[in-house]
């Protein structure tokens, strides 16, 4: 399977002599399959329209260093399996074990990574390079986003400008301001150009219209119909809905006296009233683990916390897992 990624300059303009970028906002990738006549091959398209015209009232500022593509549209082939893998967080060994267990065939199957390829685990760079080797599709996670923003700033201003460590990187009113001494800096500094291009090319939302399915890292607001109008910070970070029915990264339903719901409950309720509702696969919420509902499928099973790494085959919804023995069993997926 061949998947080429372009760096979209819809949210920021990266200009560095050492990076390979393109101004094109539309990239079509044809994935060669068997030459059997009339067999459909897969394609990945970046639509021209990437700007949000009607952001929600709770929308956060988008970092000028995010280099964000809000939406890509994937058209799968009519052959092979489509696997969605939960948050890897640098756990390369378990990633390879799981790929071996499912007998993944890159020339036939598709692999979609549900974000947070990096951070906390032992080999974040190795995970990115393995994903590139497999031509895996991906969406951007909140930890991936931090690494990208730091690296983009470095490309623009130089590593020597990223000090002192307690200085906040100038980004405007973003949802998660970063200091130059942020823990993601170690990964960012070690990204090569190809790794950066791949990770930055992971869109906020991967839309698969032919399967009536979308993949995101955190979640989607069920009341927003135009995909690019979604608040990027919320798509990468949401868990529960607050008292104002707005997405929050906090686990509000675990606090005494709070009568709130997970975003998937609101989404499922809305889907029940919708003709031909769209299914959403998501990661990010390791404390909930695997949750397979009618229209929402959670795939993060907390590998980096010593639990399991999971894939779910999209068409059959078959779940396959491996144990993660090296993780931090005392970790908390609220940590930044």
Automatic annotation (TrEMBL):
Query: Which segments show compositional bias classed as Low complexity?
Result: 18-30
Indicate the segments forming the Calcineurin-like phosphoesterase domain, all copies: 81-285
Q: Which InterPro entries match?
A: Ap4A_hydrolase, Calcineurin-like_PHP, Metallo-depent_PP-like
Q: Which organism is it from?
A: Mucor circinelloides f. lusitanicus (Mucor racemosus var. lusitanicus)
Question: Residue ranges of region Disordered?
Answer: 1-39
GO BP of this protein:
polyphosphate catabolic process
GO MF terms held by the record? endopolyphosphatase activity; phosphatase activity
- Name of the molecule in the record: Metallo-dependent phosphatase-like protein
Signal peptide stretch: none
Q: Which GO CC terms are listed, alphabetically?
A: cytoplasm
């Amino acid at each position: 399977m061949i998947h080429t990624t372009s760096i979209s300059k819809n949210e920021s303009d990266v200009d560095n002599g050492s990076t390979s970028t393109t101004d094109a906002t539309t990239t079509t990738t044809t994935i060669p399959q068997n030459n059997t006549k009339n067999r459909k091959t897969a394609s990945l398209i970046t639509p021209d329209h990437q700007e949000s015209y009607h952001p929600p009232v709770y929308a956060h500022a988008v970092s000028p260093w995010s280099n964000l593509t809000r939406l890509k549209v994937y058209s799968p082939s009519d052959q092979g399996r489509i696997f969605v893998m939960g948050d890897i967080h640098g756990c390369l060994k378990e990633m390879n074990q799981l790929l071996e267990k499912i007998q993944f065939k890159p020339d036939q199957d598709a692999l979609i990574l549900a974000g947070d390829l990096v951070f906390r685990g032992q080999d974040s760079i190795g995970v990115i390079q393995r994903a590139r080797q497999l031509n895996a599709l991906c969406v951007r996670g909140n930890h991936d986003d931090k690494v990208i923003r730091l690296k983009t700033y470095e490309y623009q201003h130089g590593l020597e400008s990223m000090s002192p460590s307690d200085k906040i990187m100038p980004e405007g009113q973003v949802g998660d301001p970063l200091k130059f001494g942020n823990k993601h800096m170690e990964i960012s500094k070690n990204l090569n150009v190809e790794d950066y291009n791949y990770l930055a090319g992971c869109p906020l939302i991967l839309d698969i219209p032919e399967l009536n399915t979308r993949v995101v890292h955190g979640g989607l607001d069920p009341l927003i119909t135009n995909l690019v109008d979604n608040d990027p910070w919320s798509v990468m970070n949401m868990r529960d809905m607050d008292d104002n029915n707005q997405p929050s990264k906090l686990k509000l339903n675990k606090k005494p006296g709070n009568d709130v719901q997970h975003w998937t409950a609101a989404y499922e309720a809305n889907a029940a009233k919708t003709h031909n509702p769209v299914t959403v696969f998501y990661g990010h919420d390791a404390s909930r683990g695997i949750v397979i509902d009618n229209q929402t499928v959670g795939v993060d099973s907390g590998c980096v916390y010593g639990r399991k790494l999971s894939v779910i085959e999209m068409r059959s919804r078959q779940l396959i897992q491996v144990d993660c023995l090296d993780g931090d069993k005392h970790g908390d997926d609220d940590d930044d």
